[in-house]
Each structure stands twice: as C-alpha cells, then as structure tokens.
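Q: For a teaching session next week I want to show students how multiple molecules come together into a single three-dimensional assembly. I've collected the sequence lines for a complex. Could you give me the predicted structure tokens for the whole thing so I can convert them for display?
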Amino acid sequence: MRFDLLPILNADGRRLSVDAELDFVGKEEQGAVFLTPVRVTGEFLNIGGSIEFEARVSCRVRYECDRCLESYEDDFACSFKEIFKKEDVKNGDEQSPDVIILEGTAVELDEIVLLNIIVHLPHKHLCKNDCKGLCPNCGQNLNLGSCDCDTRPTDPRFDILDKLL
Ligand SMILES: [Zn+2]
Ligand SMILES: [Zn+2]
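A: Of course. Below is the structure for the complete assembly, covering every listed component.
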C-alpha cells in the first residue's frame, strides 16, 4: 500500500494519521504465519523537514512450538518509529543510516511495516511456558499424557528385576 505524504511534505509541524489494514494473511516470516490482516495505526509528522513515522501494529499469528512441535496462535503487537527525509535535502553531514530517503512523495507502507514486524517477532516459540515437549524415545506429546517409556536412568539391576518378573 502506497501512502502519499504530499499533504505534509512541505509543511513543518503538519501531521497525517494512518489507520490501515495490510494483508499479509498466509505469509510466513521467522516461523510466524499471519492469520489476520495487520492493523497499523499511527501518524506521520513533519518536524523541520524530516518526516517522523510512529506506528503501532497488531495481528494474530500462528507459531510452531519449539518443544512439542504443535501449532498455536498468539497475538502479536509492536511499536516502531522511522524517520524519512526528502531526497533533495542537502545535508551531507547528517547522513544517518537510520534515515530513509524518500523516493518521490509516497512511502510503501507494507515494506516498512513488514521489516519492523520481522525485527520484533519472538525468536523462541513455546505453546505455553511449562510445555513438557515430546518424549525423546517415542515422540509422544507429553502435554497430552505420559507415555509408557521407561525414562528412569538405566541401571543394570532393573534389567535383572525385569527378567525375574
Ligand atoms: Zn509446546
Ligand atoms: Zn515415550
């Protein structure tokens, strides 16, 4: 979605609010699958010729648990800030890597939002904090019930007992 900044581009102090939904449904990033459109709310603000963009995004995503490998859903939300400058601004000394140079008068909202979501997505995925994971022997999901595997440390004396029984 292209978002045109022309109304505030040459007007110091002017604001432009954003309330949009971006459709990334089905897309997968960093082990997260988007289940709902991404809601973006925020505003662009012209401060002395630079355009500051402060936004909050939220959506529902699906992850795969690192321990039990089951899929689970969770809410995702994050806030971020970006600074844009017009390409004709002549201030070579202030070249900052954090500043995005505007090409024309519009920004690609999808691109900016997606990059910021990727930065904020969690690296660890657990369906619940106390997920018991899978049995290393039979693969049973231990959240759903215990298995019959003998997970006691092996001790030769038990083998002899087993034979006797
Ligand atoms: Zn789990
Ligand atoms: Zn087992």
